[in-house]
Amino acid sequence: MNISYSWLKDFIQTDRTPEELSAILTDIGLEVEALDVVQRIPGGLEGLVVGEVKTCEQHPNADRLKVTTVDVGAGEPLHIVCGAPNVAAGQRVVVATVGTTVYPISGDPFKINKSKIRGEVSEGMICGEDEVGLGTAHDGIMVLADDAPIGTSAKTYFGLEDDYVFEIGLTPNRSDAASHLGVARDVAAFFRSRYRMPDVSAFAEGEEPPIPVTVENADACPRYTSATISGVQVGESPQWLRERLQAIGVRPINNVVDVTNYVLHELGQPLHAFDADQLAGGRVTVRQAKPDEPFITLDGVERKLHTEDLMICDAEKPLCIAGVFGGLHSGVTEGTTRVFLESAYFNPVSVRKTSKRHALKTDASFRFERGTDPDITVVALKRAALLIAELTGGKIVTAVSDIYPKPIQPFTFGVRYAEVCRLVGKTIPDGEIRTIIEALGIKVVDEVDGVLTVEVPPYKVDVTREVDIIEEVLRIYGYNNVEIGNEIRASLNTSTKPDKEVVQNQVADLLIGNGFREILSNSLTRLDYVDDPAVAVRILNPLSTDLDTMRQNLLFSMLEAVAYNQKRKHPDLKFFEFGTTYRVDGDGYNERQHLALAVTGSRLPQQWNHAAKQTSFYDIKAAVDGILGRLNVLGWQEADAPEAHFAYGVSYERGGKVLVSFGAVDQKALSKADVSGDVYYADFDWEAILRAIRKNKITFSGIAKYPAVRRDLSLLIDADVTFSTLKRIAERTERKLLKGISVFDVYKGDKLPEGKKSYALHFVLQDEEGTLNDKQIDAIVKKLIANFEKEAGAEVRS
């Protein structure tokens, strides 16, 4: 959501800079994700100043050029060659100095440089209005008033102020803040001040009878207000209106539609303007759609309506999907002279279902489906009607028609001062709590024994309980104003089970220390990302086709993060995520915690002293082994990773349960997520890991007094024998003196028999009680060879 700084100041009086206000908005829960400067014209007249032409002489080498000297209030006058026919001594003019970039109405921007023109030095440019974007005249330079102050920036002289736009990441519960008025209310509450509402006192009701309106479903449309404006001349909106809409990213259309969009973003109330002369039967009916009733929307698409869709209709046909989208022939055109203006409150659930059913998302549906203010419909109607009459030369010819059979009541409940302080974690004076509550527009109707009875206006759709009020108070009071106390309260846990949060933090710290970055992705995903559609948890009212299923794995959300970074030229990635997967389980659901890792790109970037080295299977294996080692998970066996999503890989199992599977992601999964290059992925069953953790005991031993001995063996083995098999054989053969085993060479080639490979193994032997002699060492080696031959079919190579 975009909010204009200058527009916001129509509602509140503040001298805070945009940067300061940005920090305040974020602190009170309206997080500013970006703050952008919006210039009224390209370049914003930067570098242009007011000057006075001191002398003006004919150019000695060109008939159509003049040589001038111009005082710009900065020391010596500038020598400027000018080709304008109307330049003359004594004029006050606009000068682009050297280094300024000029943005003409047509053509590309260009930079002013010091140069020679036909042999005469030119140190700037005297500007015409079309050359700097101030107008379209191109028959000469701009001549300013005689009292224009020399040296003043053109930006100041013309009163051209930059606007600033706050891009606010509005959370779904804050529909009350989806407008400039809503943001102003929060800022005013922060400053404990008042905000201004648009003045609609000039609204005068006409004498014509209102266009008849019938509301058949008051539950879906609790309030419907309308008025009619005649004598309308549809055309382009004035510059101030176009600039305000463009600043927040809204494209101007015409003076009627632009007003409805303006009031939408100003007050948060969507409106719709109909051509009153096109209403068949001269009446409006708000009714449910007929089964499979065809309707062509503004985008030219014919849609089949559902009986739960609420429609705005005339006597013959539907005109608009209520609160969602207009019809192709229902809007205002260049030939419109009478406007029927609608300002209504629609049931949020009804709008939300219709919007999702037809996959239509608009600024209006965004607000209606979250809940608008039923008490502002008349104010918004009058505001829009006055603007339309002013900008189109029309006249309001009817009274306001207001159909509101069952007024929506405020939320009424009690708020305890003591409970506010308890949940906030700080003692806040009672008076300050009450002041904040009232500053938020919440009415205090009674106060007895430390309990306030409050009436919350209906536009605050998420404030319905005491705890919601407390959140509002804390939001305005300021999270940063709640100090960390001197006491820490915790419940003692005597359980022997590992603390899940502590373990998770330990692993996160380990991974971050090894260069990984934690990500957090959406649990909603696409159906084609699931492993087993038969047990997929589907969303009944999905936000979109890409968010219609609860995820069954963390792989594709991880791959989407990889793809997002790759497309932004960040190919070297190490990610991890703790998350939940979901499956249908009989009549219920199964939720399971997982830890996912992914590595891709270069392990080390290219430097002057080494080439870039790509990540491999062993990078993900090192991360997996490091986690299991840190958590003291022992006794697992290796097996092949499941084929789903892995080109190749390994699983670690214990007691028939898979603890972790890791390996290279297969090409099909990479292509589905639009990922390039190799990605190595690990998936931990985090609940199985927590059960497998052994209690860590801290032990230490001194540095060995006696030397270690190294022995190497080269073994010829079958191609399917793994190193882990050989390692287990060796560890069972010599439990006391064997301190380490590793493989330092692998050979496969035509010099070996078919189906064979060669492993060169390195053994470390050490006795902590004495020096090993050759006889002891040889005996151990012989036992190792014998068991390798017996259990693995190995042959010793000389």
What can you see in these coordinates?
The protein has 798 residues and is α+β, with helices and mostly antiparallel strands. It has 6 domains: 2-40 and 162-191, Phenylalanyl-tRNA Synthetase, Chain B, domain 1 (2-Layer Sandwich), CATH 3.30.56; 42-157, OB fold (Dihydrolipoamide Acetyltransferase, E2P), CATH 2.40.50; 213-403, Phenylalanyl-trna Synthetase, Chain B, domain 3 (Phenylalanyl-tRNA Synthetase, Chain B, domain 3); 411-480, 2-Layer Sandwich (Phenylalanyl-tRNA Synthetase, Chain B, domain 1), CATH 3.30.56.10; 500-692, BirA Bifunctional Protein, domain 2 (2-Layer Sandwich); 709-796, Alpha-Beta Plaits. It is built from 19 helices and 42 strands. The strands form 12 sheets. Strands 28-31-32-38-37-36-35 form a 7-stranded mixed sheet, sandwiched between helices. A 5-stranded antiparallel sheet has the order 5-4-3-6-11. A 5-stranded mixed sheet has the order 13-16-19-20-21. Helix 13 packs antiparallel against helix 15. The longest helix is centred in the last third of the chain and has 19 residues, at 774-792. The two termini are 74 Å apart. The mean pLDDT is 90.
